[in-house]
Design brief:
The chain is mainly alpha-helical. It has one domain. It is built from 2 helices and no strands. The protein has helices spanning 2-22, 26-41. The longest helix is centred in the N-terminal third of the chain and has 21 residues, at 2-22. It is globular.
Length: 42
């Protein structure tokens, strides 16, 4: 389980960096990250 968590954290960190370059606010990024996790790993 921990391996998956670390992998997800890396994915989230990378996604946040990419989204910040686009200029989205952190609240919006977090919402997108949660939705992505629910859809991608649900």
């Amino acid at each position: 389980m921990k391996e998956i968590s670390v992998e997800l954290e890396d994915d989230i960190a990378e996604a946040i960096e990419n989204l910040q370059e686009v200029g989205l606010e952190k609240d919006e990024i977090l919402k997108l990250a949660v939705l992505t996790l629910l859809i991608g790993h649900g």
